[in-house]
Specification:
Layout (H helix, E strand, L loop, with lengths): L12 H13 L4 H13 L5 E3 H8 L6 H13 L3 E6 L2 E6 L1 H15 L9 E7 L4 H13 L3 E4 L2 E5 L6 H7 L6 E7 L13 H4 L2 H16 L1 H8 L6 H19 L16 H26 L24
Antiparallel strand pairs: 1-3, 2-3, 4-6, 4-7, 5-6
């Protein structure tokens, strides 16, 4: 049986029109939206739900039952999800590899940006790997913020801890990649790594994405601020929280998150993070009520959120 929700607040007409406009102007693709919802909302609650609840959860986004079933089947085929029948219903849960990929991607979304940088760089040189291995390595390094300096040569400003060890071990390429830390030295006469930033990463395109995000969500957040955390309709709160993370994820996962010293002075990334953090804090409590009333696992309820859920964006208690 599902959790009994509190009597919901009435839907807000302004928010309803905003959601309708957003879905009409930029309708989300079903598989991509399901990935957003699974990583943001389902993974903290154990990562497993009955398909019937997921179908109900996605209906307000204009995604019908057939598209949901097709999308989860595709995600299962790609190794993200696995299905288990329970009578005439199906329970879908994250695979071990799917959970790893979610954890890697979503950690970047919710972590507080790190400002410290010791001016060092991590450099990886594919040395003797096959073309197929280089394609996989390039994709994995790209997710971790590495840019391609040249064919088979990847770099990013150093972070602690480095993700390079994990990537090379996971791809079994430790013996085929030269990995070094380096510092710029302008006295050598060549170009510095810092000077290569504009041609290595598409910062102009990424800045435009962040500014569009700020424009899209900057107005409707005021509606939530006026009402406070508990006065909005649970379904609307969940829809806005989902669209917020969906759009922020699309920009952030292309962001190498370079140190401020390497970015333009008017870089919009911090403003986008602050808006996403503040909006999430305004909506998460009521959105969680909607999830509890809609989703269930094999026990018939949705498990409570894991403690790490409440550490998102530096802490959700407000």
């Amino acid at each position: 049986m599902r959790a009994s929700p509190r009597p919901p607040a009435s839907p807000d007409g302004h928010v309803r029109r905003w959601i309708r406009s957003e879905l009409a102007s930029s309708p989300p693709r079903a598989p991509s939206l399901i990935i957003t919802i699974w990583g943001d909302a389902i993974a903290p609650h154990g990562g497993a739900v009955m398909l019937t609840g997921l179908i109900e959860l996605l209906a307000p986004f204009g995604i019908n039952e057939r598209r949901v079933r097709t999308s989860v089947f595709r995600l299962a085929r790609e190794g993200w999800l696995t299905a288990r029948p329970f009578g005439r219903r199906s329970l879908y849960r994250l695979t071990r590899d799917g959970a790893r990929r979610f954890e890697q991607a979503y950690r970047r979304i919710y972590e507080t940006p790190v400002e410290r940088w010791d001016d060092s760089w991590e450099i990886a040189v594919a040395n003797g790997s096959t073309a197929a291995q280089r394609r996989v390595l390039k994709a994995e390094l790209g997710w971790a913020g590495f840019g391609a300096l040249a064919s088979g040569v990847y770099a990013r400003p150093s972070r602690t801890p480095s993700e390079l060890t994990r990537i090379l071990a996971a791809q079994r390429l430790a013996d085929r990649v030269v990995a070094v830390r380096a510092h710029d030295d302008g006295t050598l006469g060549g170009q510095t790594l810092a000077s290569a930033v504009p041609r290595t990463w598409d910062l102009a395109g990424l800045a435009a994405d962040y500014r569009r995000f700020l424009l899209r969500f900057g107005g409707v957040i005021d509606r939530f601020r006026e009402a406070g955390n508990a006065a909005h309709h649970p379904g609307q709160s969940f829809a806005v929280r989902t669209l917020l993370i969906h759009e922020y994820r699309r920009a952030l996962l292309r962001d190498p998150q370079l140190p401020a010293a390497l970015l333009p002075l008017d870089w919009p990334g911090p403003a986008a993070y602050a808006l996403c953090r503040d909006f999430y804090r305004l909506t998460y409590r009521v959105a969680e009520r909607h999830l509890a009333a809609t989703l269930e696992d094999r026990s018939g309820t949705l498990p409570p959120a894991s403690p790490w859920f409440y550490r998102r964006f530096g802490g959700l208690a407000d």
